[in-house]
């Protein structure tokens, strides 16, 4: 209940700020207004951003409406009461870091060297613990994909 | 006509051509089934290989690949919640939930038979109605495109999952992302941040793979007991005759919508899949089941997208105008073989046209054969531990995205979209509306601006053309139906 309120409210707030950034910063700076047609290049991005602004406000409003209707609602002060939450899992963050490192390694070292360690690390994050299986799969995967793309699809890696 | 058909079949029914169709279908299924590879890429890659072959053999292979990839995209959509092609993005709605219930065989079976039957329907339409439907597609100008896109965007809310408001927000974000690149009329950069790689906008496959595949990898990494796939009981049985019979009206609906959408140049399979799904959900007696593993949902998406195969060939063969990106690549194949699609093709190379029709009909026979074996093969993936399948998927997606433009900017965008989509899923935002709006925005924006340029700024152009008015009335009707559907349901 409170979790849903918080996620909806915070989502709405984030989108509200995001749309303001688009309207007042990104569009004026990165979209030209000059045109010889009826609609300028800014029209559709502005339309989307203004719509997003309105929808984000609606989302924030609806999140409060949901909360108020609940019988356990004890007022806004109740939101300040700390609640016990489960610790967030770190695997998604680890996966993002590994993939980011893989992209950097892919760019500067090359596919064949970057891929096996990345595959190994990802399998470990996902809970695979059989070392031989991890190593064999990462090597076969790298080799097969390299052969498929380089020789089969003529995409140099 | 009958004599031309007989000659066409005689040309196609040779060992070489039949093998060509079989290998083409198999190759297309593979290209569609691997996230990061696409049928369009596959066809583009094999066109040079067909240069030394006869035109009939070349088109047997290429058309087989075209048919195969449209079905192939459903396989990863159902198994690992990652569409293999953009058109299969709608298949994940119900395909993956069916897999989670242990019905992976049933889901893939209905995807296969919906694809085959809708494809057969569209091929028959192509053969008998090519010229008539091509004349209708010629009546589509910018106002008609604009109204059709408005209608499509209105009903995107119908596939938004639990929260319509969040679905609309996702669609608006997709709409905004689609404006990145060069302005379609002025060619001035929008949100390119000085990066030349963004001048062509965000690559749709990069967005799709990031949204669905990478976010799925991140989501799955969070699950406790990641290695638990092997313990899921898997129903091996494919869809039964009762399932197919139950889905026949849906498949027919998808066939009609797919042919009509496919015949309109520039739209492609994704809008067809999406419109069929939305319409099927609307008329269903149990719309609440959609998005939770409704077999009709899978049938709707697959029939809609596969029926565009025949539909997209209509303007290509009859007018020389490609119906979608893949037929645009096929146009290249025609030119390489010294052929010019269009009215002249029907006059000067009628035998080739009927050979193409015959090849398409023979491919319909091979699709279920190849498809069933593919299902058996890819179903084994469900037994592979998550701790292996998702890291492998991550690598394949990375390499697949790199394969489009050899661009590392694309790779970083893929990762960024994956992270954003991960949080979107956690916060209850549907991803498909974002992708659908992203695909539709460029078509709609260009159409609206061209219409206004034609009319000198007057909006009456949208309400004085009958087809445009029809779509606007349908859009208004869709809004009315959606509002009524929401009366008994919270919007958030």
What would you note in describing this structure?
The complex is a heterodimer of chains A (157) and B (492). By secondary structure, chain A is mainly alpha-helical. Chain A is built from five helices and no strands. Chain A has two domains: 2-80; 91-152, no CATH class. Chain A is flat, with a radius of gyration of 24 Å. The model of chain A has no long low-confidence stretch (mean pLDDT 85). With 492 residues, chain B is mainly α. Helix content of chain B is 71%, strand content 1%. Chain B contains 20 helices and two strands. Chain B has helices spanning 2-12, 15-33, 39-46, 55-72, 74-80, 92-100, 104-138, 142-154, 164-178, 204-222, 241-263, 269-283, 295-319, 325-336, 343-348, 350-379, 386-405, 408-426, 432-455, 466-486; strands at 181-182, 189-190. In chain B, a hairpin with a 6-residue loop joins strand 1 (181-182) and strand 2. The interface between A and B is large, with 63 and 68 residues.
Task: Give me the number of helical elements of chain B.
Answer: 20
Q: How much helix is in the residues of chain A?
A: over 70%
* Rg of chain B, Cα atoms, Å: 22 Å
Distance separating the two termini of chain B: 57 Å
Low-confidence stretches of chain B: 228-233
- Taken together, the total number of domains of chain B comes to 1
Give the tally of β-strands of chain A.
0
Biggest sheet record of chain B: 2 strands, antiparallel
In short:
With 157 residues, chain A is mostly helical.
SSE diagram, text form:
The complex is a heterodimer of chains A (157) and B (492).
Chain A: H1 2-30, H2 43-68, H3 91-108, H4 111-125, H5 131-152
Helix pairs in contact in A: 1-2, 3-4, 4-5
Chain B: H1 2-12, H2 15-33, H3 39-46, H4 55-72, H5 74-80, H6 92-100, H7 104-138, H8 142-154, H9 164-178, E1 181-182, E2 189-190, H10 204-222, H11 241-263, H12 269-283, H13 295-319, H14 325-336, H15 343-348, H16 350-379, H17 386-405, H18 408-426, H19 432-455, H20 466-486
Antiparallel strand pairs in B: 1-2
